[in-house]
Design a protein that fits this description.
The chain has 8 helices and 9 strands. By secondary structure, it is of the alpha/beta class. It has one domain: Glycerol-3-phosphate (1)-acyltransferase. It has a 5-stranded mixed beta sheet with strand order 1-7-6-2-5, with helices on both faces. A two-stranded parallel ribbon has the order 3-4. Strands 8-9 form a two-stranded antiparallel sheet. β8 and β9 form a beta hairpin. The longest helix has 23 residues. One of its GO terms (cellular component) is plasma membrane.
C-alpha cells in the first residue's frame, strides 16, 4: 500500500547532500544536480514510498519504461531517495553526440546487445553490486509497445543478475512522463504547464525460493514474470486502474495471457 498523500514540503526542494550520502563520480553528481533543477520546474511530483528504497548495500532497481524522458523522472526520484541512478543503457545511447559523453562521464553501463554478456555489461554491473552499489534496469529493454502504456514482456537480464549476485530486486514504477514526451512516437515536448509525474517503490520481488537455482531459461522467465507482475501492479496503483488481463508481447503484437510458470 502506498503512503498517504500528506501536505508536506516538497522533498525535491532539499539539497542533494541532505538526502544522498552515497559515493558517486563528480560527473554524475553535477549532472543529476543540474537536471534536477530543470525537473523541479517542468514537473509536479507525486513521490511515494521512498522509504522502501534501501539507502545502502547492493540493489537492482527494475523500472518500467514509458517515455524518452522517464529516465530523468526516475533519476530525480531515486537520487532524492538516497541512491544514484546508474543505468544499464543500450549502446546506441553512448554513440549519440553529447548524450553519450554525459553517459560515460556519469559512469553509466553500456549494454551491447549484439555481444555475449552485453559486451561485459553484466560483469560490470555485478562488480558495482559487489562493491555495495546499485544498478537500474529497464527489464522491458525499451519503451513499452503496449498501446495503453502498461508494462510489456520483460527480458531476463535483471533476473540473471539477481541470481548471480544475490542482490535484491526493487521495483520502481512511474506514470506521467508520457504526458511530457510521448511514448514510442516522439512528440513535441509539453513542458508547460508542468505535468504531474508519479513514482512509487514497491516491496522487493520475492525470489527467495529460487535463490541457488541454476539460471535455466525457465527459472529466469519465472523471475522475470514476477518482476513484471510487480511493476504492473504498481502502475495500476499509480493509475488507479485495474491492469489488463495478459501482457503485451511485442513479437505477437498483442496481449498474451501467460502460462502459469509457477508450476515448474
Amino acid at each position: 500500500m502506498s503512503e498517504p498523500r500528506l501536505a508536506v514540503a516538497d522533498p525535491a526542494a532539499l539539497p542533494i547532500r541532505a538526502v544522498n550520502s552515497e559515493p558517486a563520480e563528480v560527473g554524475l553528481r553535477v549532472t543529476v544536480t543540474a537536471l534536477a533543477a530543470i525537473m523541479r520546474r517542468i514537473t509536479r511530483r507525486d513521490w511515494r514510498d521512498r522509504k522502501k528504497v534501501p539507502r545502502t548495500g547492493p540493489a537492482i532497481f527494475v523500472v518500467n519504461h514509458i517515455s524518452n524522458i522517464d529516465p530523468l523522472v526516475y533519476g530525480h526520484y531515486i537520487a532524492w531517495a538516497g541512491r544514484w541512478p546508474r543505468f544499464l543503457a543500450k549502446a546506441s545511447i553512448f554513440r549519440t553526440p553529447v548524450v553519450g559523453w554525459v553517459a560515460r562521464a556519469c559512469g553509466q553501463i553500456k549494454v551491447d546487445r549484439d555481444r555475449a554478456d552485453g559486451g561485459g555489461a553484466m560483469a560490470e554491473a555485478a562488480a558495482a553490486l559487489a562493491a555495495g552499489g546499485s544498478v537500474s534496469i529497464y527489464p522491458e529493454g525499451t519503451i513499452t509497445f503496449d498501446p495503453d502504456g502498461w508494462p510489456m514482456n520483460g527480458r531476463t537480464g535483471a533476473a540473471r543478475l539477481a541470481l548471480e549476485t544475490g542482490a535484491p530486486l526493487i521495483p520502481v514504477a512511474q506514470w506521467g512522463a508520457q504526458d511530457i514526451l510521448g511514448g514510442k512516437k516522439l512528440t513535441f515536448p509539453r513542458f508547460f504547464p508542468p505535468r504531474t509525474v508519479h513514482v512509487i517503490t514497491g516491496d522487493p520481488v520475492d525470489i527467495d525460493d529460487l535463490r541457488g537455482e541454476p539460471p535455466t531459461a525457465g527459472t529466469l522467465l519465472l523471475i522475470t514474470d514476477r518482476i513484471m507482475d510487480s511493476l504492473t501492479a504498481l502502475v495500476g496503483d499509480l493509475r488507479q486502474e485495474l491492469p489488463p488481463r495478459g501482457r503485451w508481447d511485442p513479437r505477437l503484437r498483442r496481449r498474451v495471457v501467460r502460462r502459469h510458470r509457477e508450476e515448474r
